[in-house]
Amino acid sequence: MEETSHKRVELQGIGVSPGVATGPVFLMTTEEDRFVERAIADDEVAREIARFEEALIETRRQLHDIQRQVGAAIGQQSASIFDAHLLVVDDRSLVEEVIRGLSVQKKNVETVLRLVTDRYAQALLRVEDDYLRERAADIRDVSRRILRNLSGAASSSLANLDTPCILVANDLAPSEAATLNKQKVLGFATDLGSPTSHTAIMARALNVPAIVGLHDVSVRVSRGDTVLIDGNKGVFIIHPTREDLERYGKVEEARKTLQSSLDRLRDEPAETIDGYHIVLSANIELPGDVDTVLASGASGVGLFRTEYLYLSQKHLPNEDEQAAIYEDLARRIAPEHAVIRTLDLGGDKFLSTVKMPQEMNPFMGWRAIRFCLAQPEIFKTQLRAILRASARGNVKIMYPMISSLDEVLKANLLLDECMDELRAKGIPFDPDLDVGVMIEVPSAALTAHLIAPHVDFFSLGTNDLVQYTLAVDRVNERIAYLYQPTHPAIIRLIKNTIDVGHQHGIWTGVCGEMAANPLMVPLLIGLGVDELSVSAPAIPLVKDVVRRLRFSQAEELAQLVLERESAFEINEQCRALVGQVAPEILDLLA
Ligand code: PEP
Ligand code: MG
Known about the structure:
The protein is α/β, with parallel strands linked by helices. It has four domains: 9-28 and 162-243, 3-Layer(bba) Sandwich (Glucose Oxidase, domain 1), CATH 3.50.30.10; 42-151, PtsI, HPr-binding domain (Enzyme I, Chain A, domain 2); 306-433, Alpha-Beta Barrel (TIM Barrel); 436-590, Phosphoenolpyruvate-binding domains (TIM Barrel), CATH 3.20.20.60. The protein contains 25 helices and 16 strands. The strands form two sheets. An eight-stranded mixed β-sheet has the order 1-8-7-3-4-5-6-2. The protein has an eight-stranded parallel barrel with strand order 9-10-11-12-13-14-15-16, surrounded by five helices. The radius of gyration is 27 Å and the shape is globular.
C-alpha cells in the first residue's frame, strides 16, 4: 500500500473512537458530493437513464427560474450568463456520453456524470482561450446542480457504499453516522466536531475508528488517496509509508490483544478489590445495539437515546411501533433494567418530519423536554409506549435536559394522564415504574435537592453538563481545549448531585462520556456514583479499571481533587492513579 510517489503528510486531530484503519479515501465535501459510487446491474440502466432525464428537466426548470429572477432584479444582461449553463444542460453530446457511459461502465448515474463532466472541464482548462476556460466552471456548476437534483431521489447513500474506505468529510450529521455501513466504512475523519458530539458518540457505539477536529482534512485529501487513521491518538496520515503501516499495525495489534484479554471479565462483577460494587450498564442508540450489550457483560441499559428511532425513518414512529421496540428491549434485557430516555431532539439532532425553527443557539433552544412539553401529543405517544413496555420487564423512564423542578412536575402530570388513558383501555403497565431525570443543566445540579423528592433516580449527563457549565459548545472543535470534564466546577456539581441523591435515598448514575473515560472512572467512583453507563464496546475496559482499584484509593483521589485548582491538575491526579493501577491502559490514551 506504500505510495512512494506521494508526499507523506501527518495531521493531528482529536481521536474520538479507538482503533487504527487504513484504506482509500471516500470524500464527502459538499452536499452534492454525498453520493456513493455504486455498481449497477444491466436491468438498472434504464432506471438510471430515467433518473438522469428527470434531473435534467428539473435542472433546466431551475435555471430558467433563476434567469427570470435575476433578469427582473438586475437586468437581462446579467441573466444571460445562465444561457451558458442552459447550453450545458442541452448539450446533446455530453448527455449522450453519460447515457452511453451507463451501459459501458455499469456504474450509477452520479458516478458516470461526474467522470464525463470532469473530463470535459479538464479538456477546456487546457485550451489557451479565456472564454473556453471559463466554460469549464460552467460545466462544473451545472454538474453540481444536476447531482444535487439527483440526490433528491437518490438511489444510493452512505448505507450502500461499494468498497471499504475511510470516509472524510467536513462534518457528518449524527443521523448520517447512524446509517454508516460498518463493513464498508473502515473509519472516518472530519474537519469539524468534538469528542462529545453525537457523531463521535455514534462512532464509538459502532466501534469504528474516528478522528474529528482536523480543521481542513477534507480539502487536503483527494478521493482514492491512501490514508491511515489512529483513532486513539487522533493521528491522520496521508500516503502512509511502510514504516507507518508497520508501526500502527503493532499499535492496533496491542489494542486488540488487550481487548480480547478483557473478554474474560464478561461475567465478572464491576467491583473494586475491596468489594465496592457499581452498576455498569450500557448506552444504546438503536434497538439493534442490544446484541452487543448482551455480549459485553453490561448489567442493563442505562441510557437508550430514543431520538434515533425518530431520526432513522421518514415518519414519526407511532405508539404501537414504539411499544413493540421497547417491549422487545425490556424482554431481551430482563432481568436487568433498561432506562428509556424520552425524546431528546434539537441541539445537533433534527428531524426532517417536524418543522423546527432555525435557531442561533440550538443547544440552548427548543430541545429535549422543552420540545416535548410543547408537543404533548408526540411526548404522550412515547410515554404510553414506554408504559406498555413496563408490563414486560424492568423499564425506567428518564427525562432529558431538565432545568427546573417545574418541568419535572409538568412531565409527570402528562405521565399520569397517560397512565389513566391506558387504564381506561385496560392496557397493562407497571404503575410503580421508576421515573428519573438527567442532570445535565447546572441549574438542575444546583437544585437537585428540590427535584430529588419527585423522582426515583438521577443520571448525570456530563456531556451537556460540561457544555452548559463552562459555556463551551460541545461540537465546536475550536474551543475543544476548553471542554474540560475535570474543571473544578464540574467536579463540584457532580459531587453535589450524588450527595443530594444519597440524602434522599435515590441512586445517581453517570451516562455521559466521562463515564467511559478510564481516567475518570476512579474519580467518579470516589465521588460515590452508583452506576456508570457507557457504550457497549467500552464496558470491558471500564470494568477492568474498576476491578483493579481499591475503593479507598478512589475516595482518597476524590478528596484530593476537591482541593485542586485547575482541570489540568485534577486530570493529572486521575492519570497518576490509573498509571498506578493499570499502566498499560495509559499507553492507549492520547
Ligand atoms: C449527556 O449529555 O451527557 C448525555 C448522556 O446525553 P446526550 O449525549 O445524548 O446529550
Ligand atoms: Mg445530554
